[in-house]
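Thread: Modeling a multi-component assembly for a lab meeting

Hi all, long-time lurker, first post. My supervisor asked me to bring a structural picture of a complex we are working on to next week's group meeting, and I have zero experience with this. I have the sequence lines for every component (561 residues in total). Could someone generate the structure of the whole assembly? Inputs are pasted exactly as I received them:
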Amino acid sequence: MSVLEVNQLTKTYGPVKALTNVSFSVPEGAVFGILGPNGSGKTTLLSIIMDILKPDSGSYTLLGQPGNHMIRKKIGTLLETPNFYHYLSGEQNLKIAARIKECDERDIERVLKIAGIYNRKHSPLSSYSLGMKQRLAIASCLLGNPGVLVFDEPTNGLDPEGIADIRSLIIRLREEGKTIIMASHLLDEVEKVCTHVAILQKGNLLATGHVDEILTHDDIVEIHSTHSEFTVVAESMPDKTGLSRNGMYIQLMFPAGTANAEKVNRYFFEKGVVLSHIRITKKSLETKFFELTQKQ
Amino acid sequence: MFSLLKTEWLKLKNYKTFWILSLLYIFCIFAINYIAHFFIGKILTEKVAKGMAEMVIGVSPFGFPDVWKTVSYMSSFLNILPGFLIILLTTNEYSYKTHRQNIIDGWSRKQFIRQKIILCEIFAIISTIVTAITALGFGLLSDKAFTWGGFKYIGYFFIQALSYNLFALLLAVLIKRGGLAFGVYFLYTAVLETLFSNILSHYSTNAGRYLPLEASDNLIPPPVLENVQKTFTTIPDYQLLFFASLIYLIIFQVIIRWKFLKSDL
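Re: Modeling a multi-component assembly
Sure thing. I ran the full set together rather than chain by chain. Output:
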């Protein structure tokens, strides 16, 4: 059974097309990344699933049923920004969430500890920093230990330590067998934790599938030499899939996992060129993302 | 349903602005009636003006049965305030997007808006109870014997209070932004409706009396100047006003629900 199934969702804001016939499905146990730049429709998509926005057309199912409020109680969701009552404390805010979700209030202590905000539970929300609000929002999602979690930009506003905390939390939740749907504009974040990915751009779904299939990237060997024959030899390098210049360096592309510094070094040496710089690197995901989005 | 109300209570319980305004409001219901009681008492005991005053005012309006009507009328000047609270509480949800969070967490849209409508009803009930107690107090202080006669004005007061609260909720749901909703609510109730009412009445006799809030306002006529008023205007058709008010209550709720259930939040 798929946890979420989206069918031909379309949504417009006046002349702006926020989503155009988007369809995909999220299998159980997946960490599903919805990837796209700002304004690509990620939050709109998740808002529709949460009944915050009404789609122009299309449909969706959650846990095999048409979406409704009883199912939403079983899903922990952080949408766009943390939304809390500013005059209440962190704990009082979670009490309201717990009542709405119909889960035991005793769970509040546990989730506050997981999110690392327990020592500030009595402070009013108005005194929280953005990062603390974000942590409280994550805590709220974990109330009642739901099997499905929806995170929209979960690391928004967090410092590097916070980002690492959330990343390891997501990995831990994945290991517990939970399904996680996560929207992000950070490719790095998606690549590190997601098993599946859907890529959105300007409301269009560009690709969806297993993360290894969608976000494959070539290995790069970056080299430099002052030898006059350097460029000619580089162009004759066998097995490469591409070549590009990056300042004084030349970058040789090889299929993923096949770059071999020793082989490159030996080849150049045998041609009489001594390399003064050699470095294996990965094609940046940003480059890959541009490639994907520019194909359209 | 009780569980939902309890959640709504959690939102209110620690909201200081709400409590300060509510307590001031309740105090002012006593105060505004006390002021009226004080001045009318003074006029009636003033020897020189006595004959004249009795002609205009009649016997003391703070004795039974008139006290029900008098206190309802005086208190109704403050009916605008619970509406402000409704706008405050509802537009707060919009500004902090907590209405979204409530729905994301698992309330249906229907459950959310029903809580707000119930809040309007509870506020109206509390206003009515405070007004009834105030009327009872002033009535007992007078030398007239207790009677339920005229108690219907307390019922009319409830309808008027509920009309203001639901109208405020309607504006909050339609406008969403606190400042603008406050402004429109205040200007409409204070000035614009009277203006529209007069314009309408100009074209069709007394039609202006049946505007949304004007209808329930007119259910409780000014008590002391009734003798004077009778000579200048025709007595309104109270039965028609009553039904018009009830119909507006239904219309307000229908629009509030329709807007909240159908639109993007």
